[in-house]
From TrEMBL:
<dbReference type="InterPro" id="IPR019832">
    <property type="entry name" value="Mn/Fe_SOD_C"/>
</dbReference>
<dbReference type="InterPro" id="IPR036324">
    <property type="entry name" value="Mn/Fe_SOD_N_sf"/>
</dbReference>
<protein>
    <recommendedName>
        <fullName>Manganese/iron superoxide dismutase C-terminal domain-containing protein</fullName>
    </recommendedName>
</protein>
<comment type="function">
    <text>Component of the mitochondrial ribosome (mitoribosome), a dedicated translation machinery responsible for the synthesis of mitochondrial genome-encoded proteins, including at least some of the essential transmembrane subunits of the mitochondrial respiratory chain. The mitoribosomes are attached to the mitochondrial inner membrane and translation products are cotranslationally integrated into the membrane.</text>
</comment>
<dbReference type="GO" id="GO:0005737">
    <property type="term" value="C:cytoplasm"/>
</dbReference>
<feature type="domain" description="Manganese/iron superoxide dismutase C-terminal">
    <location>
        <begin position="254"/>
        <end position="300"/>
    </location>
</feature>
<dbReference type="Pfam" id="PF02777">
    <property type="entry name" value="Sod_Fe_C"/>
</dbReference>
<dbReference type="GO" id="GO:0046872">
    <property type="term" value="F:metal ion binding"/>
</dbReference>
<dbReference type="InterPro" id="IPR036314">
    <property type="entry name" value="SOD_C_sf"/>
</dbReference>
<feature type="domain" description="Manganese/iron superoxide dismutase C-terminal">
    <location>
        <begin position="143"/>
        <end position="200"/>
    </location>
</feature>
<dbReference type="GO" id="GO:0004784">
    <property type="term" value="F:superoxide dismutase activity"/>
</dbReference>
């Protein structure tokens, strides 16, 4: 990893509060809280070996998740959404222009947690590997590997495609590996900003956050935003988006996200720098990310084990 020249102040919290909202106001109420991670070890004090330092993890997960959680609690306080899981909030607000801020924070909380929860620390090389100058392997479950190779020809092709897409994204967002439910195949999907990969939210125009454009719910309608909304009959620009009951947009597909790469700058900038001169930056972060994927978790999401009923 690459050490930056500028130091970003690190928030120091008691160990009992690191995965909970910092505000005392919300501590009194059973509202949204920062979800825990199943990463082995203690990333809050050790970072994620091979990917993020302790300070990098603190900024990208601890601080950001606390910030987004507090914002979501403020926006949903006193409403029926204040105790609704973020996944359900995404579905219920994706087509509502007036609820764009709620959607954005809920979706970012969900996406960022999904990204981190499929990570693991890079394995330490054995003595034999060190002597041979070899890197430790990150094995992929055989069944998942076979399925992915059927869609992408090889794991190397999948790695190159996801890396190329992430590096070519000019703005922040997420690169997803998704499973097409009916076809039992896999595809790569990109969402920008707080866009969601879920079929329920596909009617929302992801590259352009049309939900933040002025709509009929506002007291006045002026300018290009009003003209756009008037022309749009459905999707993110529609004022009556909630009337559409189908979970999949016309022509859309039903997918299950199984892996996620977060390209937001606050995730990698702290440890990798901007990447000037071809040194560090997002490109190096993406390369390191591939070596820290927890493929067992990905496999469990893609191919959940069925419980035997007696």
């Amino acid at each position: 990893m690459f050490k930056p020249r500028l130091r970003i102040p690190r928030v120091s919290l008691p160990s009992t509060q690191r995965q909970a909202p910092a505000s005392r106001f919300f501590a009194r109420r059973d509202l949204h809280t920062v979800p825990g991670l199943s990463i082995a070890g203690s990333p809050s004090t050790e970072g994620i070996r091979g990917l993020l330092s302790e300070d990098g993890f603190n900024l990208a997960y601890t601080q950001y998740m606390q910030f987004a959680t507090e914002k979501l609690n403020i926006l949903t306080a006193g409403t029926e959404l204040e105790q609704t899981p973020t996944r359900q909030i995404i579905n219920r607000t994706a087509r509502e222009p007036s609820q764009a801020p709620i959607f954005n924070y809920a979706s970012m909380l969900h996406n960022n947690h999904f990204f981190f929860d499929t990570l693991k620390a890079k394995e330490e090389p054995t003595t034999q590997q060190r002597e041979a100058g070899e890197e430790p392997q990150n094995p992929i479950p055989a069944q998942l590997k076979t399925s992915l190779e059927a869609s992408f020809s090889s794991m190397e092709t999948l790695r190159l495609e996801m890396s190329a897409i992430a590096n070519s994204m000019f703005g922040p967002g997420f690169v997803w590996l998704v499973k097409v439910r009916k076809a039992e195949s896999y595809r790569i999907l990109t969402t920008y900003l707080a866009g969601s990969p879920y079929s329920d939210a596909h009617w929302r125009r992801q590259p352009v956050d049309a939900n933040t454009m002025e709509g009929p719910a506002s007291s006045e309608k002026t300018g290009l935003a009003s003209e756009y909304l008037d022309r749009s009959g459905l999707g993110a620009g529609a004022s009556n988006g909630s009337q559409w009951s189908k979970n999949v947009a016309p022509g859309g597909i039903d997918v299950t996200p199984i892996l996620c790469l977060n390209t937001w700058e606050h995730v990698w900038l702290r440890d990798y720098g901007i990447g000037a001169g071809g040194y560090g930056g997002k490109r190096q972060f993406v390369e390191n990310w591939w070596e820290c994927i927890d493929w067992e978790k990905v496999s469990n999401i893609a191919m959940p084990k069925r419980e035997l009923r007696v």
